[in-house]
Specification:
The chain has helices at residues 4-38, 46-69, 73-78, 82-107, 147-152, 178-191, 227-244, 263-269, and strands spanning 115-118, 121-128, 132-137, 142-146, 155-157, 163-172, 203-209, 214-223. With 270 residues, the chain is α+β, with helices and mostly antiparallel strands. Among the domains are: 4-79, no CATH class; 163-244, Alpha-Beta Plaits. The strands form two sheets. The chain has a five-stranded antiparallel sheet with strand order 4-3-2-1-5. Strands 6-8-7 form a three-stranded antiparallel sheet, covered by helices on one side. Helix 1 packs antiparallel against helix 2 (46-69) and helix 6 (178-191) crosses helix 7. The longest helix is centred in the N-terminal third of the chain and has 35 residues, at 4-38. The chain is elongated, with a radius of gyration of 33 Å.
Length: 270
């Protein structure tokens, strides 16, 4: 019994250290949330922050336990040799993903709720985990993407801010008055409620001569929830405005010009 007592004490102390680490982890997370609330800002990745804090405190607890409580295990662990190398190779990918996950959080490359594209994968970030990131594709699928892939690949953020710009090309028939066309299209952007009119510039530009039309490009901004609504409202408003102004929307057409051949040459060919 006397031989087991030191081991029992070490186990109890280890459990106490682990419990203390978890309590400190929860306390730290609550303090971060309170500080964020006082500033009037909302944490963009609360689940990820909580997970990283838990992992950090668990690692600290394990280091303390191995260094002070079970210090006699350290020589055994360091003397594993070849077995340690094998374990190292096995843990290579998970460790790289874990480190990449921490970098993603600290570097704020992406946030939960962002619509992004990573390689061939596009969707909304649902959760940035310590090993992988969960993305929901635009067609409803869930994909677990390794954090290393996100950290080492080009990432396109479709919504880096609350507003985004959309481009729309509208063709006018040849012979139309350019100034009238510009005026009508500008009125559409000014009157449409779904077009964002904050600290941005909406514009209508001459875009070039098409095969069957004179093309104008509309550049306008909109808020994220209005992505589909603004396309429908602007398109329908353009159609109505052009109709009221007596301007028709052109369609592809081909003009055929017949050149009269000299009569003498025609008879000769016959």
């Amino acid at each position: 019994m006397s031989d087991l007592l030191p081991i029992i004490i070490k186990v109890v102390v280890s459990i106490a250290i682990f419990v203390a680490a978890m309590l400190l982890s929860r306390l730290t997370f609550r303090l971060i949330v309170r500080a964020s609330d006082k500033k009037g800002t909302k944490l963009k990745t609360p689940n990820t922050i909580k997970l990283v804090i838990n992992v950090l405190f668990i690692l600290i607890a394990l280091m303390i336990i191995l260094s002070f409580v079970f210090e006699d295990l350290v020589p055994i662990i360091t003397g594993i040799g070849v077995g340690g190398i094998v374990i190292g190779f096995a843990l290579k990918e998970p460790l790289e993903n874990t480190i990449s996950g921490i970098f993603l959080l600290v570097g704020k490359t992406i946030h939960e709720g962002d619509a992004v594209s990573v390689g061939d994968i596009s969707g909304v970030v649902e959760l940035i985990g310590i090993n992988h990131t969960v993305m929901k594709t635009f067609d409803g699928r869930k994909i677990h993407v390794p954090n290393k892939m996100i950290w080492t690949s080009p990432v396109t953020n479709f919504w880096p801010s609350s507003v985004r710009r959309l481009e729309m090309v509208v063709g006018m028939p040849y012979g139309v008055d350019v100034e009238t066309s510009l005026k009508v299209l500008k009125e559409v952007l000014e009157e449409d409620e779904n077009v964002y009119k904050g600290d941005v510039s909406n514009a209508v530009l001459f875009n070039g001569f098409g095969s069957s039309s004179i093309d104008f490009k509309l550049l306008f901004w909109f808020e994220r929830p209005n992505f589909f609504a603004v396309q429908n409202s602007v398109s329908s408003r353009i159609y109505e405005k052009l109709k009221q102004s007596g301007i028709s929307i052109p369609f592809p057409q081909l003009d055929l010009h017949v050149i009269d051949m000299p009569e003498a040459k025609v008879k000769k060919d016959i």
